[in-house]
Amino acid sequence: xVFTPKxxxxxxxxxxxxxxxxxxxxxxxxxxxxxxxxxxxxxHVHMLVSxxxxxxxxxxxGYLKGKSALMMFDKHANLKYxxxxxxxxxEGYYVSTVGLNEATIKxxxxxxGIIQWMISS
Length: 121
Prior knowledge:
Elements: E1 2-3, H1 14-31, E2 34-41, E3 44-50, H2 57-75, H3 79-83, H4 102-111, E4 118-119
Antiparallel strand pairs: 1-3, 2-3, 2-4
GO molecular function: DNA binding; transposase activity
Pfam family, one: Y1_Tnp
Domain Transposase IS200-like: 2-111
């Protein structure tokens, strides 16, 4: 899945980057979602996750984007001046299902030189 901050602002760096990594790991663990790969770029997020069948992709994305935005604004009050109205993420997201080609997706992420923030055990 791929999603971006509102107005595709380049805000995912330094302390915001580490905060988002912690927040995503915590929120995913609450729902029983396994993060297989995750990459935080300055203006977007890539995540390869395993979502249990009982949770729809759209409900999980709503939960992840909504709760992470609230948690970011609580932790970093200065963000409200950049975004206002507590809208951290842009509307929409890109999701594709991965079947037997999971290893291929992992290799694509790694070969692009994208800095990795989470590797599952």
